[in-house]
Amino acid sequence: MKTGSVIQWFKKEGETVKKGEPLVEILSDKVTYEVEAPASGVLRKILAEEGVDKSVGSTLAFVATPDEELPEAEPSAKPLPIERPDKTTVTIETRGPSRELTLASPAAKRLARQYNIDLADVRGTGPEGRIIAEDVKRLIEEKEESRPRVKDIIPLAGIRKTTAERVSSSFRTAPHSFIIMDVDMTQAVKLREVVGASYTAILAYAAAKALHEYATVNSTLANGGIRVYEDINIGVAVSTEKGLLVPVIRNADKKQITELSSHLEDLVDKARQGKLSKDQVTGGTFTITNLGMYDVNMFLPIINPPEAAILAAGSIIKKPVVEKNKISIKPKLILTLAYDHRIIDGGPAAAFLRKIKEILETIDSSAQKNRN
To answer: pLDDT by residue (tens digit) across 137-174?
Structure first.
């Protein structure tokens, strides 16, 4: 961890805070933390705006008594008159070298940085000529008249920014190769009806068993060598309002299906409530992503770095199947394995996926019920 970003402040400058109460929410490594007030007093000054990345160890704010003198990060300078674009002269206190000051809201500043806009070119319509986000959006639209109209601008920040960086790095670094296979889910459907487990949990169970036999799939490339993991920790991609998270089921190979399903349900709930701990989103060795609930037949996933492979599942669809010259209807599922071709060759990858298929097609629902 080198940087983190402020998601939101629970208090405003000038408000009273009590020691131990939540003061600010921080995002780091896809996990959000509530930082408590270190002491009672007044939130005198906020130094880190919402949505801005700060390095570890940076001061975020000062909590002090109303009359306490605050530390100064830079030497003070004398008040300097500054002329704003609307010709109104104001007096401000500067620290460090003299510079022009443009009054702008935090949201406007973030947009300006994102789109490389000079705030001096923006006409402010807020109180006393203050530049607001709408003013920046208006200038962006004026500069892009030939492009489609913009309904909204969503800053690439927080979890979405982390996800973008990770998948971009994965696709640039790992040569992706894909194997696709369809599976007869008749036995898995029966199992779900008996034990009440989710299909994702059943997939995790099958993948964990297959990883025992094909250990190279449960590995990573590090320091010029293939590091094969002993632990089988399966991550499951979860869509949340803030972006994609991958909570991890540790030692998945040692859990039965109902235990996997219960554990997964708890992790999904915590992910969507923003309550996952750092340990619950780290240490994964293999990932499963399931878009079947969105009526997706199949898709090509991006490997979750630094892992060697990821398994994608679509919808279970009833299809006609020819068996012994007779047509029958079977519930079919398409599985896609994306793998890093630097680590895994096509043959072992195909054998691994075929093993998952075999487990799913022969899984015994009554035996699972008895064991659980």
So the answer is: 888 877 766 566 667 877 877 888 888 888 888 888 89
Q: What is the pLDDT of residues 200-241, one digit of tens each?
A: 999 999 999 999 999 999 999 988 899 999 999 999 999 988
For domain 175-371, the CATH class is alpha beta
What string of DSSP letters covers 316-336? Answer: EEEEEEEETTEEEEEEEEEEE
Q: Report the catalytic residues.
A: 341
Pairing of strands 286-290, 53-55: unpaired
CA-wise closest residue to 229 among 246, 210, 216, 213: 216
- Beta-bridged to residue 9, according to DSSP, are 24
DSSP-derived secondary structure for 23-46: EEEEEETTEEEEEEPSSSEEEEEE
For the chain, give the number of residues: 372
Q: Where are the chain's structural domains?
A: 1-71, 175-371
For 1-71, which CATH class?
A: mainly beta
How many CB atoms within 10 Å of residue 234?
29
